[in-house]
Amino acid sequence: MLYREALNRAIDEMMEADESVVILGEDVGRYGGSYRVSEGLFAKYGAKRVIDTPIAELSIVGNAIGMAIAGLRPIAEIMTVNFSLLAMDQIVNHAAKFRYMSGGKMTIPLTIRMPGGVSRQLAAQHSESYETLYSAIPGLIVLAASNATYAYYGLKAAIAMNDPVIFLEHELLYPQEMEFKEQKAFDPFKAEVVKEGKDLTILTYLKMRYDVLEAVPTIEKELGISIEVIDLNSLRPLDMQTIAASVQKTKRVVMVEEDHKTGGYGAEVIARITEELFYTLDAPPLRIAGEDVPIAYNRKLELASIPTPEKIVSRIIAWGAKHGI
Amino acid sequence: MNSLSSTKVEKFYYLMRLGREFELAAKEEYMKGNIAGFLHLDIGQEACSVGSMQAFDKGDVFTHYREHVLAIARGMEPKLIMAELFGKVTGVSRGKGGSMHLFDPSLNFYGGDAIVAGHLPLATGCAYARKIQGEKAGVFTIFGDGATNAGAFFESINIAAAWKLPLIFFVENNYYAIGTRIGWVSPFEELYNKAKNFMPAKRIDGMNVCEVYKAVMEAKEHIENSLGPYFIEAETYRYEGHSMSDNGKYRSEEEMDIFKSRDPIENLKKEALRLGIVSQEYFDSADQKAQEVVQEAVEFAAASPEPNLKELYEDVYCKECTNVIP
Ligand SMILES: Cc1ncc(C[n+]2csc(CCOP(=O)(O)OP(=O)(O)O)c2C)c(N)n1
């Protein structure tokens, strides 16, 4: 199943099952969504429930909050995470805080879907990863879908939740054909052990999952170790239980993310691990992240600014050599 | 057109032709894989870029991401723009910006900005600075119909009017923001209505370069006389999709044909020949010159080197700064 089809199916089924589910955003209706995620929904559910909005991100999110207050379950689509910054006030000061400020009297069942990450040469204003900003906000749930299974079940769970959810997607994943695994029970907050291993845990999420998986066989061979790979899936809350179980077993951890290194999401994860699991570690944790630069248009510079399978291999091997692995 | 000198008309023609040849070449190079990312073509809308830049020849210019022809009309060298599209270090933004981010402060040209309406508050701030610096030329900002629904647009027309800033707002109303027709998300399609309570606002034929030129000349006189901001809506049309990844299927053939029959380049030529202002020889030589310049631009871009890897950390700060955490 294509990743974007998994998202489409999730929305379609939720809209079919519950009349209060609506979707709004730029080009989501007649055009079918700029990444074709909402394709076919306008024809099926009509303009009242599949809403083409002006280019006004603050209003897309603010209006969605109002709709949620009135009893709808809106899914707001923001074309790219960069543009969500225009809606930051509505997301942070309004969506995230109403429940708390009202002593639990107000709930905001809102899902904000948006793709991020480095695609191909879209330059700095279209290439960011801002999960670290949203993950820092109490009151928001932040989910990151790297595969069709999570895209489908995770998005359905997000739409069903009564809290505001930031649902992150990655631009390069939309047209990917992926394996889809039927699930009986699904916990969107649970990290996925993608591959088991005993000497090193690599934590990752979104598109980096695939770069890590590509790098792993070479690293295992070079260092003569076996690697466990964990896809975090849920960034807020973070599944520390799954992480801890793995790190206690392997005693070593590497975080791989596309985000900038300074203040990136991995900084938080590694801080939690050092705080809670310091004495189980046999080596200092390693962070492999994007460089601290805006993303360049030129392809060579663009690739130089984010982790690639080759860089993951060479960084981990160098780190392994330094720490006697 | 009658009131314009033949040299002016010739200049309009040459620049529009150059712009179109440039973009046709860019499209071809994109297909070959020499250009990547988002490439927004201006084909069909050249009169807006050329007419406005010919009139607004001093002052500061803030633009959005559909800006190749505007940059050319402003005086940026086609080969430096093409090199930027190729991601080469010889490009106007050293290969770091690409199609959507052409900048040349020496020409007072600031943009492409790829955040819709994001440049309007910048234009407003610049106009304020120019006003207190006592400069008369003021600021010109150009944007699409879609941008007139953004908060930044309303905030900018309000501030510009409240502070009587020397600022020309120029909207290219091509009716579509990607695949969304302006009338679906705005209460009316004639966008000058949005500004008319704030400042003089008019709607013009954006397929007619002479009309664009005249309107911007009038607006320029208005701002130079400290009469506050001025709003121009130019009706225009893009023949291509929003960007290379959009096939533009949401528009009808009839609509396309109507606008193509109003083609700014062909119609200027026809009218000038009818009036006997410009000779056929001029048009022929201009066509040839434009093709040669574009050909050279492509060759220059192709032969130019890519940025060196050490460029990654250059231009982040004024003084080079290395990674905080190595
Ligand atoms: C704040 C923001 N939201 C969304 C986008 C995505 N986007 C890029 S161009 C565009 C359409 C803009 O249309 P319009 O303003 O009419 O200009 P045109 O492309 O027709 O020149 C959209 C939605 C963006 N770049 N910035």
Description:
- The complex is a heterodimer of chains A (325) and B (326).
- Chain A is of the alpha/beta class and 325 residues long.
- Chain A is built from 13 helices and twelve strands.
- A seven-stranded mixed sheet of chain A has the order 2-1-3-4-6-5-10, sandwiched between helices. Chain A has a five-stranded mixed sheet with strand order 7-9-8-11-12, sandwiched between helices.
- In chain A, helix 9 (208-223) links the parallel strand 8 and strand 9 (227-231).
- In chain A, helix 9 (208-223) crosses helix 13.
- The longest helix of chain A has 16 residues, at 208-223.
- Chain A starts with a helix and ends with a helix.
- By secondary structure, chain B is of the alpha/beta class.
- Chain B is built from eleven helices and nine strands.
- Chain B has helices at residues 6-31, 46-55, 68-74, 78-85, 120-132, 151-162, 182-185, 209-224, 253-260, 264-275, 280-303; strands at residues 60-64, 103-104, 109-113, 139-144, 167-173, 176-177, 180-181, 201-205, 230-235.
- In chain B, strands 2-3-1-4-5-9-8 form a seven-stranded mixed sheet, with helices on both faces. In chain B, strands 6-7 form a two-stranded antiparallel sheet.
- The longest helix of chain B is centred in the first third of the chain and has 26 residues, at 6-31.
- Chain B is globular.
- Chains A and B meet through helix 12 of A and loops of B.
- Thiamine diphosphate (TPP) sits between chains B (66, 114-116, 144-147, 172, 174, 176-178, 242) and A (26, 55, 57, 79, 83, 86).
- Thiamine diphosphate sits between chains B (66, 114-116, 144-147, 172, 174, 176-178, 242) and A (26, 55, 57, 79, 83, 86).
